[in-house]
Specification:
By secondary structure, the protein is an alpha/beta fold. The chain contains 11 helices and 20 strands. It folds into 3 domains: 38 residues; 207 residues, P-loop containing nucleotide triphosphate hydrolases (Rossmann fold); 195 residues, Ribosomal Protein S5, domain 2, CATH 3.30.230.10. It binds thymidine-5'-diphosphate and magnesium ion.
């Protein structure tokens, strides 16, 4: 009789006994019973059987590795995140919150592949075929050519993939398929692992590029994430807020490409539309109000201008609110401390709200300076601007300049009504630190007429100098405590 084990549905930790709190990750009430089906086990490790003959090691140089062509999904942003398209026979896990657009993007990708003459298969275990059809009608033409099966039985789905042997198959979703002979309802760790494992096997055997759609739990992780992540070649995460237009797809793991790439999409009536020139969008929406700054961010190999906004208001709460959207909370705490200590802007008695516009997430260290400037500008109630060398923008530039505030700055005719652009990491001693790709970030800002750019490259070398440069006379004085 196989012994039951208990598996955490968040981190995959196994334990022989049930615990209220997972010994692995500390999450509460996440352990679920998993009773292995008789005869299961072995699996990929099957060649450890004592009777198996020894294998012959081959030098890597002699391994047969034919160059494979990629399957283009017809969605350039998605192809880029995948590293140039789907790799034939590979397994991709696409995770995201409900309603984010997973079914939409997979349906339109399959549509494009079908239109390009690929054999495709859409397995829906979540919606009826009719519901998928309604969506496909909104997406237009090609999506309606995709063959579909609607079933929740894993055996039937595996048999279908074997029989059809498509080039590309989408399983929507891995958590709603049911493996017969396994305990637990669909979506539990044991079930998800079994479903993904069986599909992975048939996909590799039949050389089917397979996209497993998975829901994220409310904690923000894919159910049984560790269990699935090692199994698949590529983990894509679909992010964004349902109420907001912009959605991003990024690779958390990719055996065939970089994990730095991000695709930006917008949800419209006719499906997800790629936002090819996202910078232009974000800059045109940027305001010149106090608390606003344009961050020159890097999304993978691509520079992206994103507006960062801050709001500072007197608080009645102890401790006051720190609300972030698209920005890391811990990073905000650090920046508030540095601002208080080295920028003479103390916000200990204020509610602080920081958000990256458009639902974009910026959690690279290069965002520090922009966040700090937005906070300082909001606290002082003064819009940020850098006086350029040319006359005309000197109106507010009464304050003393430190270190040549405009060195290298290119005066832009209408520079005064453009938002300030900035990037750079801030160290604990208030110094500005180098971040990757400064020239690409600056070039992107210049492309949209945002110059000069405040960055570790100059003109300012410290947070204080940056504050003086961008706030002018409104910058706090050296010994003045706010
Ligand atoms: P969906 O792809 O079903 O999300 P998921 O599979 O991740 O749960 O749809 C996401 C949302 O997008 C849904 O609430 C309806 C909306 N939507 C549009 O706005 N336009 C469209 O063309 C489509 C197909 C969906
Ligand atoms: Mg769906």
């Amino acid at each position: 009789m196989p012994r039951a084990t208990y598996v955490c549905s968040v981190c995959g930790q196994e334990s022989p006994r049930w615990h209220g709190r997972c010994p692995g990750c500390g999450a509460w009430n996440t352990l679920v019973e998993e009773r292995p089906a008789p005869g299961r086990g072995g699996g990929a490790a099957g060649n450890h059987a004592p009777s198996a003959g020894a294998l012959f090691p081959v030098p890597l140089a002699e391994v047969d590795a034919p160059a494979v062509g990629r399957l283009s999904t017809g969605i350039a942003e998605l192809d880029r995140v995948l590293g140039g398209g789907l790799v034939p026979g590979s397994l991709v896990l696409l995770g995201g919150a409900p309603g984010i657009g997973k079914s939409t993007i997979t349906a339109s990708a399959l549509g494009h592949l079908a239109a390009a003459g690929r054999r495709t298969l859409y397995v829906t275990a979540e919606e009826s075929a009719a519901q998928v059809k309604l969506r496909a009608e909104r997406l237009g033409g090609a999506a309606l050519r995709v063959p579909i099966v609607a079933d929740t039985d894993l055996d039937a789905v595996v048999a279908t993939i074997e029989a059809e042997a498509p080039d590309v198959c989408v399983i929507d979703s891995v958590q709603t398929l049911h493996a017969e002979g396994m305990n637990g309802s669909p979506g539990t760790v044991g079930q998800v692992r079994e479903v993904a494992g069986r599909i992975a096997r048939v996909a590799k055997q039949r050389h089917v590029a397979t996209v497993l759609v998975g829901h994220v739990t409310k904690e923000g992780s894919l159910a049984g994430p560790r269990v699935l992540e090692h199994l698949v070649d590529c983990v894509l995460q679909f992010e964004g807020e349902r109420e907001r237009a912009y959605r991003t797809v990024r690779a958390l793991k990719n055996r065939f490409g970089s994990t730095n790439e991000v695709g930006v999409f917008e949800m419209r009536d006719s499906g997800l539309v790629e936002v090819v020139d996202a910078s232009a969008r974000f800059v045109s929406e940027a305001t010149r109000a106090p608390g606003s700054v344009v961050l020159c961010a890097m999304e993978g190999s691509r520079p992206l201008l994103v507006e960062v906004q801050a709001l500072v208001a007197p608080s009645e709460l102890v401790p006051p609110r720190r609300v972030v959207s698209g920005v890391d909370r811990n990073r905000l705490a650090l920046l508030l401390a540095v601002l208080a200590r080295h920028g003479a802007i103390g916000l200990g008695a204020s509610d602080v709200f920081v958000s990256a516009a458009g639902g974009v997430r910026v959690d690279e260290p290069g965002a520090d300076l922009a966040i700090a400037l937005a906070l300082a500008s909001a606290a002082r109630g003064v819009p940020l601007r850098i006086a350029s060398d040319s006359q005309g923008s000197a109106s507010r530039a009464a304050g003393p300049r430190s270190g040549g505030a405009v060195a290298g700055g290119r005066a832009v005719a209408d520079g005064t009504d453009r938002p300030l652009a900035a990037f750079g990491e801030i160290g604990l001693t208030g110094e500005l630190r180098y971040v990757a790709h400064p020239e690409r970030r600056s070039a992107e800002a210049h492309k949209f007429g945002l110059a000069p750019v405040l960055s570790p490259e100059g003109p300012a070398r410290t947070l204080r100098a940056a504050l003086t440069a961008a706030l002018g006379s409104a910058a706090p004085r050296a010994r003045q405590a706010a």
